[in-house]
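Weekly structure sync, notes
Attendees: PL (lead), two postdocs, one rotation student
Agenda item 3: pending single-chain targets
PL asked that the sequence for the first pending target be pasted directly into the notes so everyone works from the same version. It is reproduced below exactly as submitted, 192 residues in total.
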Amino acid sequence: MKRILCYGDSNTRGSLGSGRRMEDAKQWPNVLQQLLGDEYRVVQEGLSGRVAGGFERQKPVYNGRRSFEVAYRSAAPVDLVIVALGTNDLKADYGRSAQNIADDLRWYADAIQRFQDVAEGKDTKVLYICPENHPQSQPGVWTELIRIMQLFPEFVLDLGELQKGPDGLHYSEAAHAQVAHNLKEMITEIQV
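Predicted structure, written out during the meeting:
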């Protein structure tokens, strides 16, 4: 059985905003599981408000780096890690540049190499989903971040503008389905 860890923010969690969550069967990691079938085990690890880096001081539980090793080791051995972070990092309040965010995202690929003691001989691949533009982002930062991510040596999936729910930030049900279908195609292509 191949194992896939989906590590992300509220859209990976299936948040509808206002603390509510979409039905489990409609959340993209669970739709992906259905599409891939019994030969795969998809592990959903999404947290609303999670950032890619370790800079959140008021609520450190949202620091993506802080909880990644535990999530990775719990899911190990893993064939593929899907990193779906960066949207929250774009908030102007954080003052992060596109390069800062890209560096924080690249940290995950480097970290996985350090966790080889639980890999059981597997060569874990990394696939980044380009973040959505946050409504409170600084002008130009999101566009520059996507440009930088296209240069990553790992796999990068740019889904473009996805349909949002009523709050304008979280994925609609149709967007969750689109994410899962696009990921399935890419997983097949990269032979996970």
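Discussion points:
- The chain has a mean pLDDT of 95.
- The helical segments are 10-13, 28-36, 64-75, 98-114, 141-149, 173-189.
Action: rotation student to compare against the earlier draft before next sync.
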